[in-house]
Amino acid sequence: MAVPLLDLTPQHDVIMPELTRALEEVTRSGKFILGPYVEAFEQQLAAYCGVKHAIGVTSGTDALLVAMMAMGIGPGDEVITTPFTFFCTAGCVTRLGAKPVFVDINPRTYNIEVEDIPGAVTRATKAIIPVHLFGLSANMGPIMNIAQEHGLKVIEDAAQAIGARYEGQHVGSIGDCGTLSFYPSKNLAGLGDAGAVVTNDDDLADRIRRLRNHGTKDGWHYEDVGGNFRLSALQAAALSVKLPHLAGYIEKRRAHAERYGRHLEELPVGTPFEAPHRHHVFNQYTIRCHGKSREPLRSHLNARQIGNRIYYPVPLHRQPCYADLQYAKGSLPLAEEAADLVLSLPVFPEMTREQQDEVIAAIREFFAAD
């Protein structure tokens, strides 16, 4: 049978009556821009993440952008981050006129290598953006120690990791702030683009609320030059329906991941590493192919109509738009190696046992014929 990489239809079928009621209520109210539905979701989200403030915005990308704007990051500043992530992590830095400084990754977790961060700190460094990649928390304890030692801000890019925890603490609640994405492929999937910033910093939250609304509180007096980063009330209502189901979605993903691990452990692929004291939420289930097996395996899976995707085929320091940063090929070898070897498999919560069996059988068949 064909197995998609992601299918939200069965998830929506279960909650469709709730979704329909929530969207109808917003539509009948006429309150589409900020207002009570956004505020209700923000309170719900803050409670879930264990923070004082959640500020809904238009996307995970805009969450990163507005967080850095609120911190005053701009021309002349440097921001340390990972090259093995979605483009917006560094793209938002560049949009503000600052410079992304890339640090290599840990080959087991694919997250930023903590030991390499101090060597990247300069007088111009303003912040660190650790990315909780694929749903696994970065090693936040040492990162926070480095930040404190050098007086740096920490923005957690938790776009793929809502519900993940580091030593029992929700990601996004550890640094100065965390940024979330509710893009449809994420564990808490919106009905389009949506995002949020979460924080315990009252002043930072206040600035972000102004900046998402062009820099104003009351609509007439502008303390800052912001943007239109307002979360739609329709998205907020849909997300309010879905958030109480998130724990169940995560446990299903974890169960799928555990079963993949048992059935793939004897094959020549690397399965995801679950670091100690970190709760993985498996936004992606990413295997590591050995040698030159990835492209033939992809072709085999495609022929069987089994969804798969490479996250990410080109690390950011090797992207054409960052050629001026002059990172030579081989300068960040572990990120480059990961880009050549990783492959993500279907792991969405509603994937059936039969669908997962199909994926496992196809992979086993490929290596049996090798």
Explain what this protein looks like in three dimensions.
It is a single chain. By secondary structure, the chain is α/β, with parallel strands linked by helices. The protein folds into two domains: 9-103 and 110-244, Type I PLP-dependent aspartate aminotransferase-like (Major domain) (Aspartate Aminotransferase, domain 2, 3-Layer(aba) Sandwich), CATH 3.40.640; 246-369, Aspartate Aminotransferase, domain 1 (Alpha-Beta Complex), CATH 3.90.1150.10. The chain has helices at residues 9-29, 36-49, 60-70, 88-95, 140-150, 202-211, 233-242, 246-264, 294-303, 333-341, 353-369; strands at 53-57, 78-81, 99-102, 125-129, 153-157, 165-166, 169-170, 177-181, 195-199, 269-270, 278-279, 285-289, 342-345. The strands form three sheets. A seven-stranded mixed sheet has the order 1-9-8-5-4-2-3, sandwiched between helices. Strands 7-6-11 form a three-stranded antiparallel sheet, with no helix packed on it. It has a three-stranded antiparallel sheet with strand order 10-12-13. Helix 5 links the parallel strand 4 and strand 5 (153-157). Helix 1 (9-29) crosses helix 7 (233-242) and helix 2 packs parallel to helix 7. It starts with 8 loop residues before the first helix and ends with a helix.
